[in-house]
Design goal:
With 89 residues, this protein is of the alpha+beta class. It contains two helices and five strands, in the order βββββαα. The termini are far apart.
């Protein structure tokens, strides 16, 4: 699987990738590289778009055990994340 080229976070300038959350269909930034503590599986569709699937703890552990790379939401590490999160209340 070839991932789309990383972009740069407009706030902290870290490399990120944008993908569409499979459940909410919202764009979401993820870290550019896989993480050993990640909980987001990614796949690229036939048009080259990146799609994200947020996994629960047991599914994340199973995917890691199978050698599947998982990613973290960029909201975990971005020092300006609160500025960009949408309020869902």
């Amino acid at each position: 699987m070839t991932l789309p080229e990383p972009q740069v976070c407009r706030s902290c300038r870290s490399p990120i990738r944008w993908g569409t959350d499979a459940n909410t269909r919202r764009l979401m930034p993820v870290e550019a590289e896989p993480s050993p503590t990640g909980n987001i599986s990614v796949y690229v569709d036939s048009t080259g778009d990146l799609h994200l699937v947020v996994l629960n703890r047991s599914k994340s552990a199973a995917m890691r055990a199978a050698g599947h790379p998982l990613f973290l939401s960029h909201f975990v590490s971005c020092p300006h994340a609160a500025r960009w999160r949408k309020d869902h209340h």
